[in-house]
Design a protein that fits this description.
single chain; about 80% helix
Length: about 170
């Protein structure tokens, strides 16, 4: 059995191939941003204040937990493609805005807190839509394989993104 008919069979579907390529880039970029944002708070905006980093991390990840019933409902009842276009666009604007503030040396801690919270809220809506969207891209028989590859992409981003941010 070849890799295409086995391990990577869902990649036979063009839309899933395109999705997978974009997802790995997005996952790596998201984890690079999260790591760089925490590093910015730890080394540039505070005097190695771990509590401030904890606040940023809580603001990044807390909305997922708190808003889960609503974000799941929205992912189930809204056009997932349109929802992801909106959320990905918002996350891109947020990343660009924080990046520009940082590059120009005018970023302040409270601004990082606001961006972390906004990013957390936006990604809370993006995540359930993204996870379910995979089902819409492949034939029913390939769904388990596509979900597995999507999960691998997410976890690869979690490994590669922070390492790349460190460089």
């Amino acid at each position: 059995m070849s890799l295409i008919t086995g391990t990577f069979r869902s990649l036979r579907t063009r839309n899933f191939r395109v999705w997978s390529a974009g997802a790995i880039v997005s996952n790596i970029g998201t984890w690079m941003q999260r790591t760089a944002q925490d590093w910015l708070v730890l080394t540039q905006l505070t005097h190695k204040n771990a509590a401030a980093v904890g606040v940023v991390m809580a603001l990044q990840f807390g909305p997922h937990l708190l808003m889960l019933p609503w974000t799941g409902f929205v992912a189930d009842h809204m056009d997932r493609r349109k929802l992801m276009i909106i959320t990905q666009g918002l996350m891109g604007v947020q990343a660009l805005s924080l990046g520009l503030l940082t590059v120009f040396g005018v970023v302040q801690l409270w601004e990082v807190y606001v961006f972390a919270f906004l990013f957390g809220c936006t990604s809370a809506f993006d995540a359930p839509a993204r996870q379910v969207f995979v089902n819409d891209l492949v034939h029913e028989k390939d769904v388990p394989n596509a979900v597995g590859l999507n999960s691998t992409s997410f976890n690869a981003g979690r490994m590669i993104g922070p390492a790349a941010a460190g460089l």
